[in-house]
């Protein structure tokens, strides 16, 4: 699902083609609120409660008992639910042109291992900054000044990129903090409409979390945050945003990334996945076999599974939804429609799902990483493994 992060600039997403996984550590979402129930039914209001609408009476006719009335066919109810899902998400983003933005292939890098982590990281960061610089030159020559600026920002000496691919919509994985010595690592997984063109808002969320962790962590406890844009996110205005297709494509890459991250760090390192909106669908599809300690789902439309048990993971599963998040009015369905599964199943904050539901106060769909918010504080506590300190909803 689409989103923006606090005070983020508006940007135009695009999509990638000719994707090849990098050879480093891995193979390779404000929008206006959706229409409310009252506006969706504005043209079909009931009459005033004290007034009964008159209707013609025909001799010999009567209203059949409820049990004899014709029911709406199941396929039509299914279609209506799917259309409602689209109606709620469609206003969130303008339709965009898919740009084919030229960029060099990802830098060829050796895998990062535990024995050479610190040294290899510095070489990896340097190589990916150089690649981003070349991508900026190519984007500028192509006439795309916005992408060129985004690439130059990522090429700055202060940025630490584990992976970078500037082609098409673009993908990158960025580290905040000292990954080589981190005791606790949070991996952020974004939702729809996240690309290199809109990366600044995703980066802002990672910065907010890292700052909160630095303030909250006990002395001598080191933390790192990884912004994982390691998949082609769906456009909010598209059919892909209502199905698990993109998540199914992304899941193996996320699973491989966490596996390699685990292998390159200490066995005692605590790894959490913080998954926002459509990113929670990705985490749900990747969950089986995912070597993580905690998985937090925020602003989630569902995971593609009906319960925590159906995720087949040993990780603790957390979920939260703010009081102002429009995702709460999206139908939590999972149906087959014209050969495609539409929807993501049981609501992750519902009792039947079985997640550990935590407090996100009145956060809207873009507000889970707002500095000072209840949602951000709880996400930091989950990252630090302070599970008894997490405030429940």
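Q: What amino acid sequence fits the structure above?
A:
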């Amino acid at each position: 699902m689409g989103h923006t992060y606090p005070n983020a600039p508006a940007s135009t997403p695009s999509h990638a083609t000719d994707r090849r996984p990098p050879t480093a550590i891995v193979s390779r979402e404000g929008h206006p609120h959706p229409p409310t129930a009252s506006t969706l039914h504005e043209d079909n209001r009931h009459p005033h409660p004290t007034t009964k609408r008159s209707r013609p009476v025909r001799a010999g006719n009567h209203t059949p008992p409820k049990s004899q009335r014709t029911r709406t066919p199941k396929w039509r109810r299914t279609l209506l639910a799917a259309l409602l899902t689209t109606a709620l998400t469609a206003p969130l983003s303008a339709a965009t042109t898919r740009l084919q933005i030229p960029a060099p292939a990802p830098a060829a890098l050796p895998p990062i291992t535990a024995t050479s982590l610190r040294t290899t990281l510095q070489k990896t960061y340097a190589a990916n900054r150089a690649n981003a610089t070349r991508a900026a030159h190519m984007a500028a020559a192509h006439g795309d000044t916005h992408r060129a600026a985004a690439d130059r920002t990522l090429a700055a000496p202060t940025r630490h990129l584990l992976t970078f691919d500037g082609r098409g919509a673009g993908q990158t994985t960025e580290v905040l903090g000292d990954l080589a010595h981190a005791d606790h690592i949070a991996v952020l997984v974004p939702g729809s409409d996240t690309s290199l063109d809109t990366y600044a808002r995703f980066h802002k969320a990672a910065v907010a979390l890292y700052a909160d962790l630095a303030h909250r962590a006990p002395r001598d406890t080191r933390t790192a945050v990884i912004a994982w844009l390691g998949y082609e996110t769906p456009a909010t205005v598209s059919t892909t945003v209502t199905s698990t297709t993109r998540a199914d494509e992304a899941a193996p890459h996320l699973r491989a990334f966490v596996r390699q991250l685990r292998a390159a760090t200490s066995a005692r390192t605590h790894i959490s996945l913080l998954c926002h909106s459509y990113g929670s669908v990705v985490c749900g599809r990747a969950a089986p076999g995912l070597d993580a300690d905690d998985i937090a789902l925020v602003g989630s439309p569902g995971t593609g599974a009906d319960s925590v048990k159906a995720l087949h993971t040993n990780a603790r599963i957390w979920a939260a939804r703010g009081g102002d998040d429009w995702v709460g009015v999206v139908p939590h369905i999972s149906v087959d429609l014209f050969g495609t599964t539409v929807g993501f199943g049981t609501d992750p904050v519902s009792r039947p799902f079985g997640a550990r539901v935590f407090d996100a106060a009145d956060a809207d769909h873009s507000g889970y990483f707002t500095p000072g918010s209840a949602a951000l504080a709880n996400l930091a506590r989950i990252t630090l493994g302070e599970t008894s300190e997490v405030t429940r909803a």
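Q: And what stands out in the fold?
A: The first strand starts at residue 161 and ends at 165.
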